[in-house]
Amino acid sequence: MQDSIKIKKDLSQIIVGNKDYIYSSMFYLAGLILGAFIFRITNNSALSKLIEIIIKSTQTTFSAVFLNRFFLYFSIYVLCVLLGMCLIGFPLLNSVPFIIGLELAIKISYFYVNYKIKGIGFSLLMIIPEGAAVTTVLIYSIKTSTNLSKKIYALSKGNGNEIGIDTKEYFKQYILYALIITAISLINALISFLIGGIVKM
Hints:
The chain is mainly α. It has helices at residues 2-17, 19-42, 46-57, 62-84, 95-156, 167-194. α4 runs parallel beside α5 (95-156), α4 runs antiparallel to α6 and α5 (95-156) packs antiparallel against α6. The chain is globular. It starts with a helix and ends in a 7-residue tail after the last helix. The model has no long low-confidence stretch (mean pLDDT 78).
C-alpha cells in the first residue's frame, strides 16, 4: 500500500515538474492531428495546389532548401523569444509547437497522398527527423521563455519573493538554441542533396 502511494506521489511530482514540456507536447500533437485533417479535407482543392507550389518551389537548390527551413523555423523561434520577453507571453507560448505540428503534418500528408510509398520514405528520411529535432529545441526554448515571462509578470506585480532576472543566462540559452536551429537547417539541406537521388520526387 505504501509502495503504491509512493509511486503515485513520485509520478505526480514528475508530471508537475515537467508540466511545461507535457503541455508543449500535447499542443504539438494537436497540431499534427489538425494538420492531417486539414490536408485531408482540402485535398485537390485550391489550398492543396498552393501547398504543392510552396513545397516544390523550395526544393530547387541547396540554398533554397536551407533558407526555406531556416527562415521558417527561425521566425517561429523568434516569436517564442519575443513572447518570453512579454509580460503576458507565457499563456501564448504553446501556440509555437502547435504551429510546428500543423506544418509538419501538412507536409507529410502531401508526400503520402501524392507519392505513396516513396512519400513515406521521404518523410521518414527527411521530414520527421528534422521536425523532431526542431520541435525538441523549441520545446526547451519554450520552457526558457515561459520562465522568463513568468518572472517578468511576477516582478511587474511587485512579488516580494521574486528576485531579479539573470539576463545573461537567458541570452546564452537563446543564442545556443538559435545556433542549433541554424545547424539543423544546414544539415537538412545537405542531406536533401546528398540522398536526393534516392528519394527523388
